[in-house]
Design goal:
There is one protein chain. By secondary structure, the protein is an alpha/beta fold. Helices cover 22% and strands 28% of the residues. Strands 3-2-1-7-18 form a five-stranded parallel sheet, with helices on one face. The protein has a five-stranded parallel sheet with strand order 9-16-10-11-12. Strands 21-22-25-24-23 form a five-stranded antiparallel sheet, with helices on both faces. β5 and β6 form a beta hairpin. The chain starts with a strand and ends in a 6-residue tail after the last helix.
């Protein structure tokens, strides 16, 4: 009996998880994975750790390599760019960039995890030398070289989301003068509400980052190399620009075959199938189904695509799966110098974008009972909750502290996924030990505060 041919496009988290799931579930499959780049599965989320010399080696910052799957039925091909889906005869046309030859490969099932491409601002000077992007193996090694170069004294980071914050922190720790710019009004403004971003913005400034928000960047100045960033209000001298200003789906090659929306995201049904028979899509190039928003929204996270891959492969050979993909919450965490936060579900920005009406609550307290002094570890902690104003269903949340309480973000994620209400969280049975927490746990207290109960 011949093996079913499974072709996977993209070697990041989705491709990796798909191979694992296929090997775990089926004995009669032949798997071919194509990766356009040279380096297999670089983890851009680990870039800051590499830039700060906190990894074993840059070549280890990956999910897997060509040698990770020695099975005879797994073929991992780097430097292979999939250029076209030939739906009628169920093949893909693939360019081998090392030989410049194009070859067609047959598939029975095709899994698209083509990911996204970082955006370069469409302004004059974006092609100057020393204007970099913050994504992928090649850019990581280039940025690292600049951080180690004493001639690079000032670095401007464009984009104040997760990646931009990581770039700014790594550059600051490398001893550079750093300017952080964004068109939005506050750092991390699309991830956290203002109660938390105000704390983090002050902390960035305290650590030497020049924070420039509401920045309307007009051009990068320079002859061959960039020398300054010009905004509507002034010029900022710089030796290096690191752009972390968003991404776009890597889907131009699918136009005319796979249905895309007006921004280029791959359209899928509730089973993660595209309009083309036997072609599935997952990951950053698609819009994920959000459980709290009850609609499809952009959630570019490794945790999301791995769950999607697990679902797709599990139901790969069913005509119609018994259950649709249930969706995801969308949870993440980040350190900003001494502060650590984790967030899950919706916030004011994402709720508005998804058309969801929410109420919010912000709670601050100490981690442990008041008889424990601050110098003995009784740290300040902050909790944000977003919820349905009528039903009190929890739709989002975040925690922030200089003490690492990010694991509480997983509790919030579980509460959101299971559609718990404030009343459930207010009474949830968590442990108490004064060396760790309060008589009522932090999330108990935050929920009680949202319900306008008297403070414990």
């Amino acid at each position: 009996m011949s093996k079913k041919k499974i072709v996977i496009v993209g070697a990041s988290h989705g491709g990796h998880q798909s191979i694992i799931e296929l090997l775990n579930r089926y004995n009669d499959v032949d798997i071919t994975l194509f990766e356009a780049g040279d380096f297999i599965s670089f983890m851009s989320c680990g870039m800051e750790l590499f830039l700060e010399d906190s990894v074993t080696d840059v070549n280890d910052v990956r999910n897997f390599s060509e040698k990770s799957f020695p099975q005879d039925n797994v073929h991992i091909l780097n430097n292979h760019l999939v250029q076209k889906i030939n739906a009628d005869n169920k093949t893909v046309s693939v360019l081998d960039s090392t030989t410049n030859e194009t070859k067609d490969y047959e598939y029975d099932k095709l899994i698209l995890s083509s990911g996204v491409t970082p955006k370069s601002l469409p302004i004059p000077g974006n092609d100057l030398e020393n204007v970099y992007l913050m994504r992928g193996y090649d850019w990581a090694t280039k940025i690292k070289a600049k951080l180690n170069d004493p001639e690079t004294k000032h670095i401007t980071v464009v984009g104040a989301g997760y990646i931009g914050i990581e770039a700014a922190e790594a550059a600051t720790k490398a001893g550079k003068e750093v300017t952080l710019m964004d068109v939005i009004d506050r750092p991390l403004g699309t991830y956290l509400d203002e109660d938390m971003t105000s704390i983090l913005e002050k902390h960035l400034i305290k650590n030497g980052v020049d924070v420039v928000m509401n920045a309307q960047i007009e051009k990068y100045i320079g002859d061959d190399k960039v020398t300054a960033v010009k905004t509507k209000t002034g010029e900022y001298p710089t030796d290096l620009v690191i752009q972390a200003a968003g991404v776009k789906p890597n889907t131009d090659w699918l136009k005319g075959v796979v249905d895309l929306d007006d921004r280029g995201w791959i359209k899928t049904d509730e089973y993660l199938r595209t309009n083309v028979p036997d072609v599935y899509a997952m990951g950053d190039a698609t819009l994920a189904y959000s459980i709290p928003a009850e609609t499809h929204v952009p959630i570019a996270l490794a945790t999301v695509v791995r769950r999607e891959a697990r679902y797709v492969v599990k139901h790969l050979f069913e005509d119609t799966p018994a259950l649709p993909f249930k969706g995801v919450v969308g949870s993440s965490a980040l350190s900003v110098f001494d502060y650590h936060f984790a967030e899950s579900g919706l916030n004011s920005f994402t709720a508005k974008r998804a058309g969801v009406n929410i109420a919010t609550s912000f709670y601050s307290d100490t981690l442990r009972p008041i008889y424990v002094p601050a110098d003995k570890g009784n740290t300040k902690v902050h909790v944000y909750l977003a919820y349905n104003p009528d039903s009190h269903q929890i739709l989002g949340g975040a925690v922030l502290s200089k003490y690492d309480i990010t694991a509480q973000g997983n509790v919030l994620a579980l509460a959101i996924e299971n559609k718990l209400k404030l009343e459930d969280l207010a009474e949830a049975d968590f442990f108490f030990q004064p060396g760790f927490d309060r008589q009522w746990s932090l999330l108990n207290l935050a929920a009680q505060h949202a319900l306008h109960e008297d403070k414990f």
